[in-house]
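Reviewers of the previous submission asked for a worked example of the structure-prediction workflow described in the proposal, so we include one complete record here. The input consisted solely of the amino acid sequence. No template or homolog information was supplied to the procedure at any stage.
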Amino acid sequence: MEAKVTSDQMKPHVLWVDDDDPERFVYERYCLERDGWKVTWARAVAEAAKALSRERFDAMILDQMIAGNGVEEQFVIWAGCRLLRWLRGSDPPAAHHREDTPWSALQRLVPHDANKQLPVAILSAYHDADVLRATQGASEQDRKALFLGKPVKEAELLGFLKKVRPRPQSS
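From that input alone, the workflow returned the following structure tokens.
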């Protein structure tokens, strides 16, 4: 018996990681869905890491600063960078972290193999050159990662996703 593939399973899949409420980006999400993308939202580092370890994605929109569950105030600015470095396997082993922080989730989880080379656009309303440099230094492919400011420009967002959209496989 053959399993049916739903139209949602055939859509390219983007993970949007942002501690802002998804309702802030209603228009952007509408544009992505209109363009054929399935959008999954994660509002915290641990939530994003769980999704990246379970599911295969075709692209990621990553907020530079991610507050949320257990992120110490002084590390909020580095949270997006830390998540990307974990995904790329370039995150140095951390000193002991409390178990209730998102960093402990990064130590327990392993990214899905298909996500390790995931194309990423970095999103932020706050620009910190040191953090952006460190984020873009996560891997060779991230050196020229697209930086999207907030508010997001539809053309830049869709341009990035058009470039990284997977090609349909012919049978």
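The mean pLDDT is 82. We consider this example representative of the routine output the project will generate in years two and three.
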